[in-house]
Design brief:
Blueprint (H helix, E strand, L loop, with lengths): L1 E5 L1 H9 L4 E4 L7 E7 L5 H11 L13 E13 L4 E15 L7 E2 L15 E7 L6 E9 L7 E7 L2 E2 L11 E4 L2 H14 L1
Parallel strand pairs: 1-3
Antiparallel strand pairs: 1-6, 2-5, 3-4, 4-5, 7-8, 8-9, 9-10, 9-11
Length: 195
């Protein structure tokens, strides 16, 4: 499947706020399905620029997914403008998110990686960078439904592409049992920085 990499606020706008236009330097044949990959970095300037241009206000950088393929859209029309093209998109479909290395321009990802069962995604996630202590580096805390207690939540913690284990028996990568997803997220971030 064809894919492109976009900034995090743009991807969020496509799947959460009815954003339906992409400005690109490449022509694309229409109609075509297109996977949306989120770039690995995001700054407050990216969010500000996007909100000023569109009047769409995305979450802060820490709550935006980074470095993952997050969904599929259909490019319905490609209109040439002065020095670029306007892609009109529709039918945004979230997918099971997966890490992938983005590229410039249009590129291909294997169709086999696309799983339309987005219920496999975490309820909420937050990411950041840990500068002190060990280990240090890029981290992600994700909140999931608790495997044994209905309407409760657990968290998983990953840092430097490793996952903290030793959690719930039978579900080694999940930790805790919380009545509120935000409470689980806060506990996961606290554990990460207490290590």
């Amino acid at each position: 499947m064809k894919a492109i990499t976009v900034k995090a606020p743009i991807a969020w706008g496509i799947f959460n706020a009815d954003y339906r236009s992409l400005y690109r330097y490449e022509f694309i044949n229409c109609p075509t399905q297109l996977a949306i990959h989120v770039s690995k970095s995001c700054s407050s300037a990216d969010i500000k620029k996007f909100s000023q241009a569109t009047q769409i206000f995305s979450p802060d950088c820490g709550r935006l997914l980074l470095g993952q393929v997050v969904g599929v859209v259909e490019v319905k029309e490609c209109v040439e403008r002065y020095s670029d093209f306007l892609w009109k998109i529709s039918n945004p479909m979230p997918i099971k998110q997966f890490d992938y290395k983005g590229q410039l321009g249009i590129y291909e990802i294997p169709d086999s990686r696309i799983d339309y069962d987005f219920s496999k995604n975490p309820i909420i996630e937050e990411c950041g960078y840990k500068f002190k202590g060990n280990p240090r580096g890029q981290w992600r805390v994700a909140v999931w439904p608790h495997p044994a207690t209905a309407n409760h939540y657990s968290y998983s913690v990953a840092i430097l592409n490793g996952v903290m284990g030793g959690g719930i028996p039978g579900h080694d990568l999940l930790h805790g049992c919380f009545a509120d997803p935000e409470e689980a997220l806060t506990a996961g971030i606290k554990e990460l920085y207490d290590v």
